[in-house]
Design brief:
heterodimer, A: 290 residues, globular, B: 294 residues, mainly alpha, 15 helices, 73% helix
Chain lengths: 290, 294
């Protein structure tokens, strides 16, 4: 009985601790959301905690009125889709042959790839390469340099090599080629891993910032992260200040910054719960043993 | 089975990718040993041997960047390494499955936000005028505290943001390890009269110890490497003394000031040191767990 009571207290303390951890995760986001939805006077008076005070959507009106903001969001979505599709194609093309133990030169290919995980030219040689290829201010500068993640490739290779060989052998007897086998048998069996890796590529691309900072100066090619960065850190974009001036409302830059941040968070929050079930298994595969 | 040629055809594009985008920049490292100028190109620029390296080893900012890289990664390790272990153990002890699922979903979420966005959240949260933290502190009669413009406070915020971003996500690996523990061990412990805390101490922790050690070794191996987005997004003018790390230093010196050779030499230095650390860590991890990482 004593043990039982103890266990109950243990459960209670545990539930509370986890609840606090969850709150710690949520409160910063709720605070920013509230700032973005509150009135200027309430923000300045320090009355906004994690719930909007004097609810209004003026700052969102300003953000949405800024055409470059929407364009940048659409551009980033397009970029993410193109990048993810190409990355997955390339990753599969590398992982499938390298999962075949009998392939001559396999270890050499693997060594060439794994070495890039340990050693790289770094920022400046990368920049010089992109410049020499004529890709500065080019859509492809945001796609090509990070096309294959060696880590993801190895995760996929490992998964492929766990598929039973007998499946392929029987297909060979029926006269199928590696291409047919890959498309008809291997890929359909790998959907959860493919979904997970696609998610990793997509989130990575959506969130990545450095390449845009380095290679892009043309505002038509600004991914959302670069756009947000400029709004938050370089005070205000000229376009936005202009619109703000026109509105002549009592908008505070704080709520505008908050709305811009939310602008980049909301798409993630919207797709995240639907993809969640995939990535756990994917992380397990990739965990520790690549 | 003599269709291997098709497999080689598959490999053409990926290997071309690695050659062009990974190995050509390695060749580009040559400019660390040259007086690079754009018009003569990498090969055409005159050699200066180790003059660039002598130059960077004489730069005060270089040492500061190296120190800060180690400092920030070190603090991250101390605060950020135990957090996911504790979280994973707590999550695995939850009995209500729905509660567990919902908490996990929320705890993983910050991992999916970019550092730019997190930097934005941090600025809002810690702003002296309107930020939640200072609003609450003022209510309690403390502050305002300048979190983002005072060095030590900034370090605290930097480390906390790291834990916030990745503790939940990194817990997944430990959760997997915990899920793999033989239930009989717990049953035996129950028979011996162990309470839940004792079971955590005598069963869970020893069972996930190999995972903990391997991850620790690997994390120590990454101590000389640092990404760009996070320190760049979190840093500001007032805290450069502690926030300027190798990656931001390379960006500033190389691309902002156009001193390509100098910045490349710094990047090269970091790559080599980072690789030595990683290879050593990997070697130790392999010794520890015979199969190693790969």
């Amino acid at each position: 009985m004593v043990a039982d009571t103890r266990s109950k207290i243990f459960d209670m303390v545990l539930n509370i601790l986890i609840f606090i951890a969850v709150l710690v995760c949520l409160i910063p986001i709720l605070h920013v959301a509230s700032i973005s939805l509150s009135s200027n006077s309430a923000i300045l008076a320090g009355r906004v905690y994690i719930w909007p005070v004097e609810l209004n959507v003026d700052s969102y009106k300003v953000v949405f009125a800024d055409k470059t903001m929407i364009k940048s969001l659409v551009f980033t979505a397009k970029l993410t889709v193109v990048y993810t599709l190409l990355s997955m194609l390339m990753t599969v093309l590398a992982a499938y042959p390298l999962s075949k133990k009998g392939l001559k030169g396999r270890n050499l290919f693997l060594l060439i790839i794994v070495f890039t995980m340990y050693f790289s030219g770094g920022m400046i040689p990368d920049y010089i390469l992109i410049k020499n290829l004529g890709l500065l201010n080019n859509f492809w500068a945001l796609v090509l340099p990070g096309l294959i993640s060696a880590f993801n490739m190895i995760v996929l290779k490992t998964f492929f090599s766990t598929l039973p060989e007998s499946l392929e052998e029987s297909a060979f007897i029926d006269g199928a080629s590696y291409l047919t086998i890959l498309i008809r048998i291997v890929l359909p069996l790998s959907l959860p891993v493919l979904a997970t890796l696609s998610l990793f590529y997509a989130v990575g691309r959506w969130n990545y910032f450095m390449d845009a900072l380095l290679y892009i100066t043309d505002s038509k090619l600004y991914p959302i992260q670069l756009k947000i960065y400029q709004i938050i850190y370089n005070n205000m974009q000229p376009e936005i200040s202009a619109i703000e001036g026109n509105l002549s409302s009592n908008l505070l830059p704080e709520s505008l910054k908050a709305a811009s941040v939310m602008f980049a968070i909301i798409p993630i929050i919207m797709v995240y719960p639907w993809l969640q079930k995939y990535f756990i298994s994917g992380v397990m595969i990739g965990a520790i043993k690549g | 089975m003599s269709q291997h040629y098709l497999l080689y055809i598959f490999l053409i594009l990926p290997m071309a990718y690695f050659f062009i985008f990974k190995y050509i920049p390695m060749y580009g490292l040559l400019i660390a040993f040259k007086d690079y100028n754009m018009f003569q190109g990498i090969w055409g620029s005159p050699w200066n041997n180790f003059a660039t390296f002598k130059e960077i080893f004489g730069m005060k900012d270089f040492y500061r960047a190296v120190r800060n890289t180690l400092l920030l990664n070190g603090l991250d390790l101390v605060a950020g390494f135990p957090a996911p272990i504790i979280l994973a153990i707590m999550l695995s002890e939850l009995r209500n499955k729905t509660y567990k699922k919902i908490s996990q979903t929320i705890l993983y979420l910050p991992h999916f936000l970019s550092w730019i966005v997190i930097g934005g959240i941090v600025i809002q949260l810690f702003s002296t005028q309107t930020g939640l933290i200072n609003v609450v502190l003022k209510k309690m009669g403390i502050g305002p505290v300048e979190f983002l413009s005072k060095k030590n406070n900034w370090l605290l915020v930097y480390v906390a943001s790291g834990v916030w971003q990745s503790a939940g996500w990194n817990a997944i690996i430990y959760l997997a390890a915990i899920a793999g523990i033989n239930p009989e061990l717990y049953e035996a412990a129950t028979v011996d009269g162990a309470g839940r805390l004792r079971k955590i101490w005598h069963v869970t922790l020893p069972c996930i110890k190999p995972t903990i050690i391997i991850l620790l070794i690997l994390n120590v191996g990454r101590i000389a490497q640092i990404g760009f987005d996070r320190p760049y997004a979190m840093g500001n003018y007032f805290v450069t003394e502690v926030s300027d790390v190798i990656s931001t230093f390379v960006y500033r010196v190389g691309l902002r000031s156009g001193r390509f050779s100098t910045a490349t030499a710094v990047g090269f230095f970091q790559s080599v040191v980072g690789m030595v650390f990683l290879l050593t860590a990997n070697y130790i991890a392999e010794k520890f767990d015979e199969q190693g990482i790969w």
